[in-house]
Amino acid sequence: MQFHILTLFPEMVENGLQTSILGRAIQKGLIGIHAVNIRDYTQDKHNKVDDYPYGGGAGMLMQAQPVYDAWKAVAKPAEGKKPVRVLFMSPQGKTFSQEMAKELAQEEELIFLCGHYEGIDERVIEEIVTDPVSIGDYVLTGGELPAMVMIDAISRMVPGVLKNEDSGVTESFQENLLEYPQYTRPEVWEGKKVPDILLSGDHARIDKWRLEKSKERTKARRPDLYEKYDLSGRALEYLLKNKMLHMDMIEDIRRGKADILAVREDGVLTKDRSGGVYRITAKTKDAGERLLSLTDPTGAVYVCHQKFVLTSILERFGLKNFNECYQVIYPKKKAPDLPEPDEAVEIRELDETYAANVEAHYHLYHDEAYIRERIASRQMIGAFLDGELAGFAGVHNDGGMGMLEVLEPFRKRGIGSLLEVEMIRRELAAGHVPYAHVFVENEISAALQKKSGMRFASGSVFWVS
To answer: Which helix (DSSP H) or strand (DSSP E) does residue 23 occupy?
Structure first.
C-alpha cells in the first residue's frame, strides 16, 4: 500500500514513519511512504507557497496552485483511471476511528494533504479533497502529525505488517470494546499479583474473563463506545426477560430487519427497516422519554409496549390515533395439525393476479402496492373452494402474521382456522416464532388465535400514528 503525503515538511513525516514496525514494513515492501514537498511545485521565484487571506484576518493561507500541482503530479488524474482518495487533515472533517482505518486499509493508494499556517485556499480543497478527516476536536500547527497518526493506524490493518496477524484485531476498539488488562513477568510486583485466572491454563475461562473485563472497562471509561457494543446481543438480552411481550421486537432483530438505535439498562429502541416503524420498550416514563428523543416524529409510526410510553408519545408529538393490541405468540416448536374442514379446501400461495381482489376485501385498507409487495415476497396464501378465492392470510413486512380475511359467502366454515394454522406452520418451517398483533376489540380474531394454539402476552402493545 502506498501513502503519499503532500506537505511543507517532508523530513518530519519521513523521520517519524520509518522506525519500528512501520520501518520494517517499508523495508519488506508492504507499505510505501512518499513525502511530497508542496514547495517544489510553486511557480513563485521566491519559493513562496502562502499569501494573505482575502477579507483580512490573522496569519497566511497556503495557495491553491502549488497544492494542486503537487496533487496532480502524484495522483496523475486521467480519464478512465480510478481516482486516488485524498484525505485532508482538518478539524472540520469526520472523526478518524478504527472502523475508518479498516476501510481505508482496503485502498491501494492514499494521498494525505497536510495544511499549515492558517489553512489552505478553499478552492483547491473543493477541487481535489475526497475525505476531510479529523483526529480530534483540537487544533495543531499542521496536518503532519494527524497524517502520521492515521498512517500508523491504517498500516496495522495491512496484511503482513504485524507479526502476529491476530494482534491487529484483538486490541482496543475491537467491536467497540476497550482492551482488557494485560500482565507479564514477574508474577508478583510491588505486592500486586497477576490474576489467578491467567495462570490457570484454561483458555476458555481466560477468554471469558478478558471479555468481561473489556466490557467493565469500556462501560466505566468509555460509555459512548459501550452504547455501540453488541447492540443486537444486548437488546435481545433485555427483551428476552419478557419475551412474550417483546416478541415483535425480538423477531425483528433475529430476522435482521431491525436497526437498533439504543440499548440501555432501562429500555430498547429499534426501527424496522422495511416499514420504518419505531419500536420502543422502557422500564419507566423517564426512560421512555429519553428513547423517544432519539426518534424523528415526522410521519412516524410507533409501536410501544407500555401505557406510560403511549402517553408520552401522544403528549410529546401531539398525536391522537392509536390502537391497543394483544401480542399473541405460538410458543411451541412442534407445528399444529391442520384442521380438517368438511369441504375440500385448497391452500396455495397467491400470485399477483389476486392483488386487486385481496385489496378490495382486506379490512385494514392497505393499498394494492403493499399487497403486491407481500405477494411478490411469497408471504400471502389463499384458501380456495371449487377454484374460487374464499379467504387469504399473510405475513406483514415487519414479520407479524395477519392480513387474514374470509370473504363473506365463505364465513363460519372453518376457513379462518385453516389459514391461521397454515401460516403458523409456514413460519415455524422458516425458523421463525409465529406472532401477531390483534386489536383488543376484535373478539372474533382473539377467539381464533386461542383456538389455533396462540398464547397471549400479559400487557398490551400500542400502535401510534
So the answer is: helix 20-27
CA pair distance 397, 184, nearest whole angstrom: 54
How far apart, in whole angstroms, are the C-alpha atoms of residue 373 and residue 274? 11
- From CA 147, how far away is CA 6, in angstroms rounded? 10
Sign of the Cα torsion 160, 163, 165, 168 reads negative
What is d(CA 307, CA 282) in angstroms, rounded to the nearest whole number?
10
pLDDT over threshold 90, residue 57:
no
Residue 446 is predicted with a pLDDT of 96
For residue 2, the number of C-alpha atoms closer than 13 Å in the C-beta half-sphere is 12
Cis peptide bond prior to 186, omega within 30° of 0 = yes
Interior CA angle at 17 toward 134 and 172, to 5°?
55
For CA atoms 132, 144, 16, 138, give the dihedral sign. Answer: negative
Half-sphere exposure of 260 (CA within 13 A, CB side): 25
Between CA 194 and CA 121 the distance in angstroms is: 56
Q: Is 144 left (phi over 0), alpha (psi -120 to 50) or beta?
A: alpha
Rounded CA gap, 439 and 444, in Å?
A: 10
pTM, full prediction: 0.68
* SS3 label, residue 171: coil
List all residues 6 or more positions away from 121 whose beta carbon is below 8 Å from its beta carbon: 61, 62, 63, 64, 67
**CB within 8 A of 229, min separation 6: which ones?**
175, 176, 177, 215, 218
Question: Which DSSP helix (H) or strand (E) runs through 307?
Answer: helix 307-317
Grid cell digits, residue 118:
492558517
230-239, 333-342, 409-418 — which is least confidently predicted? 333-342
**Sign of the alpha-carbon dihedral angle for 447, 451, 457, 461:** negative
